Amino acid sequence: MRIALVLAGPYPDLRGSQVLVRQLADGIRGRGHAVHLVTYGAVASGRPGPRPARLARDVVLVARLWRTVRREAIDLIHAHNYEAAIAGLVVGRAASCPVVYHGHTALAEELPLYFRARLARRLARRVGLLLDAHVPRRADFCIAVTAELGEMLRRRGVTAGDLACIAPAATPGAAAHRPRTDPNGLVCYAGNLDGYQNLGFLLASFARVRARVAAARLVLVTHAAPGALERTLGPGVEIVRAASYDEVRARLDAADVAVSPRSERAGFPMKLLNYMAAGKAIVASAGSAKCLRDGVTGRVVPDGDEAAFAAAVVELLSDAGARARLGAAARRAVEDARAWETVLDRIEAIYRNVLAARRAAGPELAASAPDGFGVAAPTE
Question: What is the pLDDT of residue 74?
Answer without folding.
Answer: 98
